[in-house]
Design brief:
The chain has about 300 residues and is an alpha+beta fold. The protein has helices at about 20-25, 75-85, 95-100, 105-115, 130-135, 160-175, 230-245, 280-300, and strands at about 5-10, 30-35, 40, 50-55, 55-60, 65-70, 90, 120-125, 140-145, 155, 180, 190-195, 200-210, 225-230, 250-255, 260-265, 275, 280. It folds into three domains: about 5-90, Rossmann fold (3-Layer(aba) Sandwich); about 95-115 and about 185-300, ATP-grasp fold, B domain (D-amino Acid Aminotransferase, Chain A, domain 1); about 120-185, Dna Ligase, domain 1, CATH 3.30.1490. The chain contains eight helices and 18 strands.
């Protein structure tokens, strides 16, 4: 039987995986153990190439690891992924790919080169000419952090004076670069998240916050999520995105443009796992897809 770890930067029962979820994992066709990332110690040593220290004890390596990072990604997260790679533990997330997906501007550059539809986006710095930004993007426009997630660090700017204030606050005082992006009015408060695993669609979710005042659709800021069946065009774009970014597990966000879908961004952590459709939760769908991928790349276990 395959032996896997869910490595999370949240404690057991918090975040994506509830206590009930963890209990149901006993019924899976593989052994799956929850491991708190904060209890892991990393060591480069020739006599510990088949073990990792967890909660003060050395444990045999798992066949595979599912890394779920919810509290932000820092040096230790990347070091852990690289350590798993060094020890030949299969993981659907690779450090290099995770870093690429978190850099929104880099992602947009790759999408544009591949002919994937994206919203017009400018890199906005202390030295950027405000008039040029307004001329190229128009008002209102979306301002976002290059590496934000869950709708954090995203705002809708409606005037040149607002834009100037943001430039002074973030670019001048906080030394941050920002992204200035075209506002897709036809998708205000709405988008879809397509979760992909090993190049295949696992499930889709329509996120809707259009009845509220917030232009963002994220469930974390008040949006509702319902199961959504992607059409052929959405599937085609999502598959192109994961191919370009070389991602084995991710969520692809699509906006509703006037002439079709527009890629909003790619997220390494799928989310929307507790939505139930036809008696099955998205978490169950995800674990089944992960199992198929692990069997494909690792085999049926030792």
């Amino acid at each position: 039987m395959l032996n896997g770890w869910i490595i999370s930067d949240k404690k057991a029962g918090e975040g994506y995986f509830s206590t009930d979820d963890l209990g149901k994992m006993k019924n899976l066709p593989f052994a799956l153990e929850f491991v708190n990332m904060m209890e892991i110690d990393l060591e480069v040593s020739s006599d510990k190439r088949d073990q990792i220290r967890v909660a003060g004890n050395y444990k045999p390596l798992p066949d595979f690891a599912l890394c779920i990072f919810e509290a932000g990604v820092g040096y230790f997260h990347f070091a852990l992924l690289r350590h798993l790679e060094m020890l030949d533990v299969f993981s659907l997330h690779k450090a290099e790919n995770l870093a690429g997906s978190r850099d929104k501007f880099f992602s947009y550059q790759k999408f544009l080169k591949a002919g994937i539809p994206v919203a017009k986006t400018l890199l906005f710095t202390l030295n950027t000419d405000i008039d040029w930004v307004v001329e190229r993007i128009g008002l209102p426009m979306v301002i976002k952090l290059p590496d934000g997630s869950k709708g954090e660090g995203v705002c809708l700017v409606k005037s040149k004076s607002e834009l100037k204030n943001i430039q002074d606050l973030y670019c001048k005082n906080s030394k941050h670069e920002l992204l200035a992006q075209e506002f897709i009015a036809t998708s205000k408060g709405r988008d879809v998240r397509i979760t992909m695993c090993d190049g295949n669609v696992v499930f889709g979710v329509l996120r809707d916050n259009s009845k509220g005042e917030d232009f963002r659709s994220n469930i974390s800021v008040g949006g509702d999520g319902v199961y959504w069946e992607p059409d052929e065009e959405a599937i085609r774009i999502a598959k192109e995105v994961v191919k370009v970014m070389d991602m084995k597990l991710c969520g692809v966000d699509l906006l509703f443009g006037e002439n079709g879908y527009i890629v909003g961004e790619i997220n390494s952590m799928p989310g929307c796992l507790h939505i139930v459709h036809e008696g099955k939760s998205n978490l169950q769908r995800l674990l089944e897809a992960i199992y198929r991928a692990v069997v494909k790349y690792v085999g049926n276990g030792k």
